[in-house]
């Protein structure tokens, strides 16, 4: 959901596709990656998209390997992502707000489902 939010509501004009391709996520358990999602942006240059995917994956891995428990790491891996966001364009901020709203609800539902299955 966060990745779709970030990609569909980007506030900037895509130039090469590197920034959008660097946007993705990894799920970790005790620092070990369990799932990853990084895709080349539609219409992106091949080299730029591949560089973006590598940058995003690398950043997510760096952050995630230090985590304990279950962690969702959503990143925009290009070094200029914060600059674009600071200029007032949406890169990850809407995805962060979505995660803050939805994650507690999703965890409650998961716990409820586990309890129901255990009965």
Describe this structure in words.
There is one protein chain. This protein has one domain. It is built from five helices and three strands; from the N terminus they run ααββαβαα. It has helices at residues 2-8, 18-21, 46-64, 81-86, 93-118, and strands at 23-29, 32-37, 70-76. Strands 2-1-3 form a three-stranded antiparallel β-sheet. Helix 1 runs antiparallel to helix 5 (93-118). The two termini are 30 Å apart. The model has no long low-confidence stretch (mean pLDDT 90).
Give a quick set of tags describing it.
about 120 residues; alpha+beta; three-stranded antiparallel sheet; about 50% helix; about 15% strand; globular
Concise synopsis of the structure shown:
With 119 residues, the protein is an alpha+beta fold. The chain has one domain.
Kindly report the average pLDDT value.
Answer: 90
Number of domains: 1
For the secondary structure, the number of strands is 3
Give the DSSP E fraction (strand runs of 2 or more residues): 15-25%
Rounded to the nearest angstrom, the distance between the terminal CA atoms is 30 Å
Alpha-beta classification: alpha+beta
SSE diagram, text form:
Blueprint: H1 2-8, H2 18-21, E1 23-29, E2 32-37, H3 46-64, E3 70-76, H4 81-86, H5 93-118
Antiparallel strand pairs: 1-2, 1-3
Helix pairs in contact: 1-5
């Amino acid at each position: 959901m966060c990745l779709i939010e970030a990609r569909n509501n980007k506030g900037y004009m895509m130039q090469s596709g590197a920034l959008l391709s660097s946007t993705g996520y990894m799920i970790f358990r005790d620092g070990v990656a369990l799932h990853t999602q990084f895709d080349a942006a539609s219409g992106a240059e091949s080299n730029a998209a591949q560089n973006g995917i590598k940058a995003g994956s690398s950043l997510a891995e760096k952050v995630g390997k230090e985590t304990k428990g279950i962690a969702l790491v959503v990143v925009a891996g290009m070094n200029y992502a914060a600059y674009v966001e600071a200029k007032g364009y949406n890169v990850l901020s809407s995805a962060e707000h979505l995660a803050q709203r939805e994650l507690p609800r999703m965890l409650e539902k998961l716990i409820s489902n586990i309890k129901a299955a255990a009965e």
